Amino acid sequence: MLVLRSGLTRALASRTLAPQVCSSFATGPRQYNGTFYEFRTYYLKPSKMNAFMENLKETIHLRTAHSELVGFWSVEFGGRMNKVFHIWKYDNFAHRAEVRKALANCKEWQEQSIIPNLAHIDKQETEITYLIPWSKLEKPPKEGVYELAVFQMKPGGPALWGDAFKRAINAHVNLGYTKVVGVFHTEYGELNRVHVLWWNESADSRAAGRHKSHEDPRVVAAVRESVNYLVSQQNMLLIPTSFSPLK
């Protein structure tokens, strides 16, 4: 009986410990919500930037009839020039597949926008992202400029760097130095990458807030903790187009 009870005890103990061992490999809160955001970046030929924007201004309604456009911006600073960046929202991957099929069969969209604009585009990039579980998409109080900051993090996911990163973001926002629109984590594309979309009234107000935050010991402490998990970072200053929902 002692042997049986001892064996049973070990079996029960292994069952109890198994979930704990597995959980240590988790990269963060599970993504139960199917909603995702597609980030698209188009590199345009320098002489065709204006023609591309004018065409979309007239035809974007044909595209937004099929799925939600979150925002559309031209890149003012950061990296290559003559670049546009836009974000599209989808309920799930089946929804995106349906939209892409519908667009391929939309004669007006193909003839009035796709065909004429293909000659204007030099390169295209796309990433699929989710909002980080503690972030939600916020609408700025008025028109302004946007900054997309991209952080390449160490492998491990939000379980590794999530809390420290959240504290760094909240330190900037809660102390009034800037406003955050959304924090996104890449699902397809460059993995372990976090995108933070910031809003400011102007490029000058952004610069002033940034300089003040660098002198605030509360922000400095939070950022120093977060950079322990950082590999690299880059950013872009974005100007919303006339047809962008986010102004």
TrEMBL record:
GO CC terms, sorted: mitochondrion
A Pfam family it matches: NIPSNAP
Domain NIPSNAP: 37-136, 146-245
Signal peptide: none
Top-level taxon: Eukaryota
Biological process annotations from GO: mitophagy
Gene3D superfamilies: 3.30.70.100
Similarity comment text for this entry: Belongs to the NipSnap family.
Entry protein name: Nipsnap homolog 3B
Source organism: Macaca fascicularis (Crab-eating macaque)
Record gene name: NIPSNAP3B
